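Table S7 (text form). Paired inputs.
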Amino acid sequence: MKNIFLILITLTSLISCNHKKFDKAWATKQAPNLYVARLQTTKGNIDIEVERKLSPNAADRFYQLVKHDFFVNGTFYRVVPGFVAQFSNTDTLIANPWKTVKVLDEPVIAGNNKGFLSFARLGKNSRDIDLFINLNNNNRLDTVSFEGVTGFPSFGKVIAGWNVVENLYGDYGEQTMSDEAAFNDIKLLRSKYPKLERIIGATIIKEE
């Protein structure tokens, strides 16, 4: 019995070390003017070059997420061929604290061309943790209006690993987005949609 107790204490300690408690100060860090983030996925690496001037608030948030290991065990949970590949960390224990600090709205400067990265949003000042890579020239996303907000400001582009992006599993399409129970339960999501590509981790590989 004593040995079992010690094992449980050890496991609890390991889990705590792997998941640092969210600190709102993380969401105040300003990104460099230009940086390259690498997403390490189950398909291979995707390198994304970010220019802060295109959408400073978005560039800052993506930088913060990468720096604080948010994308470890993340998922490309919505891949619609010819449209977008959307990703985040769907583990609510990790995601929900970041959602409490929203990214303020900005105008669209660079468009949603093929290979460009933007945050998803549902209304005013609603950007937080969900991003998408444009799989095509989605210029209508530059001017579409919803809930008082116009367009999705892109702030970076894929500069290496486009073959990885193109080969992300997309046969589930919009199905995962409509399955609310699975979307809010990472174990259920992985069980029901086992072919979804995962993000092993992310790192900043260049800063200027």
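Next pair, protein 2 of 2.
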Amino acid sequence: MAFSSSLSRFLLISVVSVFLALLAMSCAQEESPTLRVGGIPDQDAQRLARRYEIFADYLSKELDVPVEYVPSVSYSAVVTAFSQNDVQLAFFGALTGVQARLQNPGSRAIVQRAHDAEFHSKYVVRGGDEFADLNSLDDLVGRTGDLTITFGSESSTSGHLMPRYFLGDAGINVADDFRTAPGFSGSHDKTWQLVAAGSYDVGALAEDVWARAVTEGKADPAQVRELDTTPNYFNYNWTARADLDEVYGDGFTDKVQAALLALNTQEHGEILELFSTERFIATDNANYQAIESVARELGIIQ
């Protein structure tokens, strides 16, 4: 009898253990995989860390899936992370977005900031009497042989691609006309700071980064001032990988888009301020065809 009772208890414990193990496996299978988001490192790292920390928290609550921010050391690293599925949703500049979508066919640009439909770059120049006669791109013509210029990242739309393109329109060959080969600061903040420090005479950067530097009093006009503004073009966008719906369920990409469009200044003011906007609007891949054409013309995309 004692043996029979012990055997019964052993069998009961075994059955319960198997049941609990199967239950745990079932719960693990039902838990959504982490959605990893990224963004080009186009400005101050602390600002970016804060931006994506609160953004990831918001998106996780809206989508009911874990969301994690994956920082990157360069623009090209974000494109690589996206193409290798290390990041599934990314905030790209127009050029890096095009590059990422070419490497992941079927991926979609889904949202942009309101002003990204008419974005501009700013050209800045060193302060001081030596540069007082420089007030437009036209004033650079004939003077470039005495000047140096820096862009941001080589993969930056607003910090390189488009300001370089419009310099060409003004009759300036960036590769040959300046005193030295162009520099690349790596980010918009560093571009104007290098010009202010006298490391370069001219720089090109995103309009919102320059506006913040001026508004916050960081850019001393005695050291660096605005030279000119480019015509408008499409820029930053959120791009989602082609397989999001396959991984997270039908309609998930549209759900992500809706969550981004729902951001408003009343409830999510800090997030929007960190993205330098008041709202996001819908976009699509077709809006960036002109950017791809310019990149191919300049040999940046083959």
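The chain is about 45% helix and 15% strand.
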